[in-house]
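A quick aside before the break. I want you to see a complete sequence-to-structure record at least once, exactly as it would be stored in a machine-readable document. Don't worry about memorizing anything.
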Amino acid sequence: MTTDLGEVFARLPEVLREREPYPVLARLRESSPYPASDGVVVVAKHEHCSAILRDPRVSSDRSRARIFHEDVRPASRKLVDLDPPDHTRLRRLVSKAFTGRALAPLVTRIRATVHDLLDAIPPDKPFDVIKDFASPLALSTVCAQLGVPAADHELVGDWSRTLSRGLYPLPLGSVDHEATGDAARAGGRLLVYFKKLLAEPRSAPHGPVLDALLNTGDEGSGLSESEVLGICVLLINAGYETTVDLVGNGVRALLEHPEQLRRLTEDPELAPAMVDEVLRYDSPAQITTRVAVADLTVGGLRIAAGDLLVLLLGAANRDPAVFAGPDEFDIGRPGAGQHLAFASGPHFCLGSGLARVEGAAAFAAFACRVVEPKPLTDRLTYKATPSLRGPESLVVAFSGVRAAPPVLSRATADHGVGQGRRRT
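That is the input. The structure line, written in tokens, reads:
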């Protein structure tokens, strides 16, 4: 690996905050797989990332990487970091909360929330797609799943945002110790919050997902309290942050491709397909890691047991070997669903179905109701979340908001519910 590419890789968190990081990611993809340093291998081609995500010879537990000394190994019992058999047991129990039947009641609520948020846009000034639309939609949805009272939504959301800013995909660049410290405290506060929430006497259900978690299996075979609390924190953080990024990235793409915006306005049934294209074109989840637990070969490169594999999902999702014209945004693109934004294999995103519903509802409503939207590009900034990509702010000028249609099509509203259990 050249020194130049090594320097680019080291500053990848900063690159992902740029308006156009994909030319840099393309350079990294073209040279991959390659050793970034002793014990760290970069993988960025779609074929290789997809195979690694499914390979039983790799682990999701980063503490098994040999680059970490015993005294600094990142300890975690989060679902996303577990391997079989622990992961298999927890995944089977948690997936019951993400069936089509469990999530179906949320569809009507999501649709209503989308239109309520657009109805509330002040007609005489620009609005921020993130602050006024994407964030309250995603936050209210995930909080409804877990029974978080409306008065606590912003408190929980603030902790989640702080947690995301400290999730550094080590060993990328230098660690911001202040951010990681703040993140640890925010994670602890979320755990304490949900512990108190569970202890409160209630006459009504907590929320469909939390109730499903609390009623998994027979006595002795369900989830422990610590496991339920950890999953609550994971769902809040993952279900909130990545959905905000999905909506923000998608609206930005529509604004910068007016022909695609017109296409969606004329045919809102394209909204579900657009979700996959946004996930491919500008992935919220840009980076994930795995650890080789046996020697293997990827793209002709020998990987040693204990090597940390850094998978650049955003680069893989623009791989020309899989996607024709990968830098073009096409909301009707055939095969867009081959993206890896939801990962693949055993850790395929549990909440993918719900994210698809939220994204489709948001994109269809935005296209059909917001009249002549124009981005105020000088106000576009990106979040300091090292492994995720999404706007911090996306301010839009417009000339009006049309009245909400009386009924959204079932295809647009229901698309994707229950898909979180799918294995790919």
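Two observations worth writing down. The radius of gyration is 21 Å. Residues 225-256 form the longest helix (32 residues). We'll return to this after the break.
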